[in-house]
Specification:
It contains 4 helices and 8 strands. The longest helix has 19 residues. The protein folds into 2 domains: 34 residues, no CATH class; 111 residues, Beta Polymerase, domain 2 (2-Layer Sandwich). Strands 5-6-7-4-3-8 form a 6-stranded mixed β-sheet. Strands 1-2 form a two-stranded antiparallel sheet. The N terminus is likely disordered. It is an alpha+beta fold. Helices cover 30% and strands 23% of the residues. The radius of gyration is 16 Å and the shape is globular.
Length: 149
């Protein structure tokens, strides 16, 4: 394991604004060195698929944001399903990767944000997602949309 204090070199290139070092993170937290952002992304996508999330969108943020490497946006059909998808995902991230997945918005179940470290996940009710249109702000031409079943 490596400690986040070792990753305090995060900064952006003044000419391009792109990150040129590791992201700054909360001091004192521990990151297991035995997984990659891509492995976390795969687990996130598998989890939301298992829980029947709809209209799943994966957005690559590498080189575009210091916040995370990937963003996943998906929908649940009801507040209960949104809360369930979110809770199961957070449990999976804690269990498989020891990521202290923080959640915001689970109480209302309209829009839940799960901070999975290198992967940020937004789970919406369809009406709320249509209102905010978050993926329009972040979706580059290389984003992958998973078809709904």
């Amino acid at each position: 394991m490596r400690y986040l204090e070792d990753n305090v070199l995060s900064h952006s290139d003044p000419a391009t604004g792109l990150p040129v070092g590791p992201r700054a993170t909360r001091l004192g937290a521990v990151i297991p060195a035995d997984y990659t952002a891509e492995q976390v992304l795969a687990a996130v996508l598998a989890s939301v698929d298992d829980d029947k999330a709809e209209d799943v969108v994966q957005i690559d943020l590498r080189g575009r944001s210091d916040v995370a490497d990937y963003m996943v946006i998906c929908s649940g059909r009801s507040t209960r399903q949104v809360a369930s998808i979110s809770e199961k995902l957070a449990d999976r991230l804690r269990g498989e990767f020891k990521i202290p997945a923080k959640m915001e918005g689970k109480e209302t179940g309209d829009w839940v944000l799960i901070d999975g470290g290198d992967v940020i996940v937004h789970v919406f009710r369809p009406e709320v997602r249509d209102f905010y249109q978050l993926e329009k702000m972040w979706m580059p031409s290389g984003a992958h949309r998973t078809p709904s079943l």
